[in-house]
Amino acid sequence: LLAYASSVCDTYTVRKGASRRNINKDEVKGTMQALEKVHAIIEKSKGSMDLLAELDTLYKCCKFAAVSVGVIRWVQTIVSQHNYFSLNSDYCPIHLALLDEVVSNHPLLHNSVLELYMELFEGSYGEMEILAILEIKKMLVDRLVNLLSRGCVLPVVKYMVKCWHNTDTDI
Q1: What is the mean pLDDT of each run of 10 residues along the chain (171 residues)?
Q2: Phi/psi at 22 (nearest 5 deg)?
Q3: How far apart are the first and last CA of the chain?
Q4: What whole-number distance in Å separates Cα of residue 47 and Cα of residue 89?
Q5: Which of 19, 24, 27, 82 has an alpha carbon within 20 to 30 A of 170's alpha carbon?
Q6: Kind and range of the H or E element at 78?
Q7: Crossing angle for the helix pair 110-122 and 94-105, nearest 10 degrees?
Q8: CB burial readout 44-54, b (16+ within 10 A) else e
Q9: CA distance 21 to 10
Q10: CA 99, CA 168: separation in Å to the nearest integer?
């Protein structure tokens, strides 16, 4: 329903005595194909290497808002697992790189991505070493700076100031 609503637009023509409504469905087919492609990629991928092979396709499909909303929810599910960062040693995991692409294409989704970054930044990482936790938080600050550079200025700055005042975070 979201995909249909985001890819269909109405135009009205008013003439003497009658009005005519035109529905433009040009983007519906592309949106549905992109949703199906991303669903197939996500369904079959087992790890970051599988996603890396399909990264170009994922980036192209993230141009559609409905696909990007789904990608945000999927990434949230993956990175919220308690052992995600302990199993992933990349500086910027591919899942978060996908969020960077969403941020660059869809300003209206900035707040959703910011909420996820805040959740990750404030999360506890249990049995991980302090240096590893600091590296994760440093990477998340880099993601916040990227979000800031894409136009989400006030919410990011307010969050960073809150972290600086409320915790022992040294930004």
Answers
A1: 74 68 77 91 83 91 92 93 78 87 95 95 85 89 94 93 77 55
A2: -110, 135
A3: 41
A4: 13
A5: 82
A6: helix 65-79
A7: 150
A8: ebeeeeebeeb
A9: 7
A10: 27
